[in-house]
Structure prediction request, 351 residues.
Amino acid sequence: MKATSAGQLRALTADTVPDTEEIRPGIWAVPLRIPHGRIRYILTYLILDTRDDVHIIDAGWDSVLNLATLSDALNDIGRAVTDISSVTVTHMHPDHIGMASRLRDYSGAEIRIGRNEQQAMILMAEGVEPTLTPAHLEMWGVPGHRQEELTGPISITNEFYSLQADVLLGDAEALNIPGRHLTVVDTPGHTTGHICLADSSSGILFSGDHVLPTTHSGLGLGGLRSKNPVSDYLASLERLAAFDAYEVCPGHGFRFVGLAQRRQDLAQHHLRRLNETSVALAKNPTATVWEVAEQLSWGSGWHQLKGYHLQSAIAQTAMHLDHIRSSDGSYRRGNPAPLHAIFDPTAAAAR
Ligand SMILES: [Zn+2]
Prediction:
């Protein structure tokens, strides 16, 4: 894998925000700030069509500052927010969907979202908030003194889930951007209906959060319909093989070439985690989710994980346990209901 933008690579390394850059004639990457958490920015992409209308991929975190940044970037190319004709969103997270609705209000742009993602959003907007309940924490064996820091919502907010797209996108469908050839690639895993966009006219894969250059995307972070985000994600990595020669323009970090290697590294990460999970279960078949999580390798070390990051680590462990259980049926004790069955209102009704 090799970075293709020195500026983005430098910014990521220095923990700052890069400048807007033109990555192909008529295609720009505009970094927009994320006010919370460890990730500083999301890369929003502007694409000019042959009618000089503007199309946007991922709308950035909704803030006055980001609207001004986007507006400046458009002014620099002789366009305005009112010239935006479509906003395509790779997935439901607030750094990607954020300003979509506001931009539609200003410009009349149509919002385009993967069909599966929209369905998942509707279910979430109907009021099933994926929080960890005390019952979960008990079932997962979380020690009493750690339970309090874990009972917040897994997702940041649900105010975006009620957004209604104008166009629902299906796998392999062509995006309506005159003069360009972008197609949808369904890539579930990070969320239930995550999509990537492959631009065969410029050899670019817009990868959202499915493939990032330096970090591992969390899995199952939105969407109540998937029962096995781990296998979804691994299959979605394989689906990108057709684009191994493309330059990858991700949602965060820097653009790069070498997708084949990156896909392999990301798959290895989860296979390693599955392997560690199996080893932990072999040692103690009745281990709880917490006891398994303690034995896995975590980037910053198990004992450093607190609050949201600990919550995410435990949820990721539960998903890997679910995957092993669904693969060979051998793991049945200590985790009686998979995480996604609990979060899924239809599954809950069926129990
Ligand atoms: Zn993101």
In short: Residues 155 and 221 are 7 Å apart (CA to CA). The chain has one domain: 2-350.
